[in-house]
Write a structure and sequence with these properties.
Elements: E1 10-16, E2 18-23, E3 26-31, E4 35-38, E5 44-48, E6 55-60
Length: 72
Amino acid sequence: MIPHRHAQPEVYHILSGQGVVTIAGRAYPLREGATLFIPGGAEHSTRNTGTEPLRLFYVFAVDAIAEVAYES
């Protein structure tokens, strides 16, 4: 995923695989079962570092996905 940002906070929960998320220039490892918070306005990106697909569930703090405006 290319680096991007949006005003709304976001939460990722990793379902399977492994990877790295970069938030505001700092890299964090991802693995199955991990949950992380991405503050609103923070530039972030995710990449798969494993051999299997990186599957994640994500949630925005909004009532509808149409409220999320991505900025790159």
